[in-house]
Amino acid sequence: MSNALVVGGAGYIGSVTAALLAEQGWTVTVLDDLSTGHQAAIPPNARWLNVDIRDRKALLHAVEQVRPDCTLHFAARTLVGESFPKASEYFDVNVGGTTALLHTLIQCGFPRIVFSSSCTVYGEPDNLPIDEEAPVKPAVSPYGQTKQMNESSLAWLNKHNGLSYCSLRYFNAAGAWGNLGEDHRPESHLIPLCIDAAMSLRPPLKLFGVDYPTPDGTCVRDYIHIADLAQAHIAACHWLLQNQQGSSLVCNLGTGTGHSNLEVIRAVERAAGSRVPYNIVDRRPGDPPALVAANEKARRTLNWTPKFADLDVIAAHAWKWRTMFPKGYPQ
User: What is the extent of the structural domain holding 279?
Assistant: First the structure.
């Protein structure tokens, strides 16, 4: 039985990954200070350590206790729009916290990590779908910049300090898994915003721009089911354990199919059986017209295939979770 340390395991992607790891026989410890996560999302069969990853003393104690065979790092501020006015906080948590975590893992002799990266590292891509050889362009948001900086840190520590890592650049996480779903505060992701608008839990959706160079004028994104993302992280853990120390891998995680904002609205309407009210507003800064993944490398290297690639399935799972938890997770 292997030990997994899931940093940020009370969050959206981390909680589902922690739950599936435990189901598959791993001993799971969640490290999360609940600054953006939810205690109710932590799997009941996982141990929880309430630690801020910027607290190096507490982090050192936690890693020495857990002695992880593999660490999965999800803890970060993740809202692109919020990262502009709160850039200092994003660099403090995302870069400072990650630096502390990487230093501690190397110091303690547990240098295997799966890093939660993002397609934002590509900026505005030249070609679609985006493969891993696409250039990393100047970031279009402070959030994207933090992911680029962390990927640079991983590469340097791999080269000079023996760190083994998988950096998974995923596209738009969506959907729900059982009693685990999406509950960001504030919420900025399209599918839960559509659902809340359909349920009259918030005012009409703001549709940011209908003049993009896309088939219907709205942004196109690659939506990947949260359970497929979690399984890819688990596959990355196995890859790290099967390869020698100092190995590294960078993979995109997506379905390879793009859907426009209007297509997402229609999918949620089918799941809800009711209309999603929306108002068209100006474009939002930092939004590329289209982001779609080439996922052949993840399929080949990790032996991974997305099982819930249908947008209607993703929307239906998200809708079902929200009807179970109309106020989100209990506080």
Answer: 190-221+256-293+300-324
pLDDT band at 1 (very low <50, low <70, confident <90, very high): low
For 186-224, write each residue's pLDDT tens digit.
898 999 999 999 999 999 999 999 999 999 999 999 999
Residues with a catalytic annotation lie at 143
Is 182 part of a structural domain of the chain?
Answer: no
- Tell me if 86 sits within 8 A of 77, measured CB to CB: yes
- 135: Cβ–Cβ under 8 A, 6 or more apart, which residues? 122, 126
pLDDT at 81 over 90: no
Task: List the beta strands (DSSP E) in the chain.
Answer: 3-7, 27-31, 47-49, 70-73, 112-118, 164-170, 172-174, 205-208, 220-221, 223-225, 248-253, 259-260, 278-281, 290-291
Instruction: Quote the pLDDT of residue 259.
Output: 98
Check which CATH number belongs to the domain holding 151 and give it.
Answer: 3.40.50.720
- Sign, CA dihedral 221-310-127-121, equals positive
Is there a domain that residue 211 lies in? yes
**Residue 212 sits in a domain of what CATH number?**
3.90.25.10
